[in-house]
Design goal:
345 residues, alpha+beta, Phosphorylase Kinase, domain 1, Aminoglycoside 3'-phosphotransferase, Chain: A, domain 2, five-stranded antiparallel beta sheet, two-stranded antiparallel ribbon, globular
Amino acid sequence: MIKSHNFPNKAMRRVDRRSQLQRWVEMRLNASPLVLEPASADASFRRYFRVRAGGLSLIAMDAPPAQEDCRPFVRIAGLLAAAGVHVPRVIAEDFEQGFLLLSDLGITSYLRALNDANADELFRDAIDALLRWQLASRPDVLPPYDEALLTRELKLFPEWYLQRHLGCTLDPAQQRTLAAMFALILANNLAQPAVYVHRDYMPRNLMVCEPNPGVLDFQDAVYGPITYDVASLFRDAFVSWDEERVLDWTARYWEKARRAGLPVNSDFGSFYRDVEWMGLQRHLKVLGIFARLYYRDGKRGYLEDTARFAGYVRAVAGRYSALNPLLKLLDGIESKPRARAGYTF
């Protein structure tokens, strides 16, 4: 059960920061009073508010400096814009207070807009924007998506999803199996060519606008495996597609990437395998993150989507013989009674 004894203090601090943010925006725009309307929140400590002023709609970001740093957002926004990707324009910044004032990319996300009729067109635009981002890649500009970081992410799965959420403590044999599976996954991931990686390139962070798409939530960008953003785009946290369409969209990306000179595998079958193994790393990580968001951070809107990611994990583990021990491990965990019922692999 989530402990809530400190929630009132957190709520008061958030109200205080909102008032400080409003005063800061009013000073920057030389307009008062202004109304800040909640625009969105994400899995971090950041919050976003929509500001109406002089016929314009702007976005104010609140990123508490003790937990967040606005500088990467501003820096990476510049890299994306230089690459020809549509991102919010930074109008004003205050790194010490953790405030940014940004242009508004609208209210219609891909997640809200996508349907069977428009998915091909919207994903075409998303693929083209991703290619522009990747073609701008240079080493030693963004932090490396290296073995240490990929491993830290994978460890979220046993710590938060298996142990904390499912109440499952792995025995020594299971620990060895999971470690061997992690080693296989990482070997594949690290063997892939490196490019700029958005790291959360999914429909929730893409906005339907002109030029399309607008791209959000890029502050954690890194330099790493070329398939990561492809896996994020088509194996999403909040919407699933049938295998045939995912295969088709992945092939469209691959064909365009080859023509553009990006270092994708020349064999599509091998490339698709890389996408799936990279996606597996992400799926395991996200299962851990969603559990951590619930149990540590009190964010309740994520655990309901763990079944989708568990399904992704099972599908990939069942498709490749080298990963079959992972599937057997999950079967063994599933067969045992657990304290927390209702979430299965």
